[in-house]
Automatic annotation (TrEMBL):
<dbReference type="InterPro" id="IPR011006">
    <property type="entry name" value="CheY-like_superfamily"/>
</dbReference>
<dbReference type="GO" id="GO:0006355">
    <property type="term" value="P:regulation of DNA-templated transcription"/>
</dbReference>
<feature type="domain" description="OmpR/PhoB-type">
    <location>
        <begin position="129"/>
        <end position="226"/>
    </location>
</feature>
<dbReference type="GO" id="GO:0000156">
    <property type="term" value="F:phosphorelay response regulator activity"/>
</dbReference>
<feature type="domain" description="Response regulatory">
    <location>
        <begin position="8"/>
        <end position="121"/>
    </location>
</feature>
<dbReference type="Pfam" id="PF00486">
    <property type="entry name" value="Trans_reg_C"/>
</dbReference>
<feature type="modified residue" description="4-aspartylphosphate">
    <location>
        <position position="57"/>
    </location>
</feature>
<dbReference type="GO" id="GO:0005829">
    <property type="term" value="C:cytosol"/>
</dbReference>
<dbReference type="GO" id="GO:0032993">
    <property type="term" value="C:protein-DNA complex"/>
</dbReference>
<dbReference type="InterPro" id="IPR016032">
    <property type="entry name" value="Sig_transdc_resp-reg_C-effctor"/>
</dbReference>
<dbReference type="Pfam" id="PF00072">
    <property type="entry name" value="Response_reg"/>
</dbReference>
<dbReference type="InterPro" id="IPR001789">
    <property type="entry name" value="Sig_transdc_resp-reg_receiver"/>
</dbReference>
<comment type="function">
    <text>May play the central regulatory role in sporulation. It may be an element of the effector pathway responsible for the activation of sporulation genes in response to nutritional stress. Spo0A may act in concert with spo0H (a sigma factor) to control the expression of some genes that are critical to the sporulation process.</text>
</comment>
<keyword id="KW-0597">Phosphoprotein</keyword>
<keyword id="KW-0902">Two-component regulatory system</keyword>
<dbReference type="InterPro" id="IPR001867">
    <property type="entry name" value="OmpR/PhoB-type_DNA-bd"/>
</dbReference>
<dbReference type="InterPro" id="IPR039420">
    <property type="entry name" value="WalR-like"/>
</dbReference>
Amino acid sequence: MNNLKGIKILLVDDEPNILQFLEMGLQNEGFEVQTAQDGMTGVTLAKQFQPHIIILDVMMPGMDGFEVCRMLKKTENVAIIMLTAKDEVEDRVKGLTLGADDYVMKPFSFEELLARIHARVRNQFPNLLGEVVIGGFRIDDRRKEIQYQQRVLELSTTEYELLKFMVLNQGLVLSKAKILDKVWGYDFGGDENIVEVYIRSLREKLNDKEHRLIRTLRGAGYRVDLL
């Protein structure tokens, strides 16, 4: 992923070695980085620095990562990736319930964390990238335009948002309920079968007659598989 300038990351961890390692690595990737060694400082710095992404350790003395996540998700437009040394489902569920966007367990590879950061930027701040290229797709969020295999697709506003959401989450199974929430909004009161109608239209425009690009997983939802 190119053009990472302007993307701000806040690191919150009480282990100095981890902070130093991540700060150097992420700065080398082109991110603007600041660090905090405790939860309260992290909350204060987040409000001042206005990061796009926070890498947040769960287990910290005083205010732990769960409380930091809860507080910031109430007021800040930020993606939170939580770090934990515990391989416990309860911790992951608690963090996600409080609004965390992703979870990485220690020890982790820098490459894995970087991939998760890129995914969060693509999903939550695509406008910062100008254009996102994934497989045969080129998504230009400023122009609200999607190209597939160098051909501009004629899409309605809803078709654009639906295809963008699915491509940015390629490889993941997306239920009708999740699609409705993200594309139509949580307060949409219509029939969820509207998703089928729009998927059918997208398949026609993508010439996806055999449903190899947008796959249907019976009883589960849809998944984009890049060819």
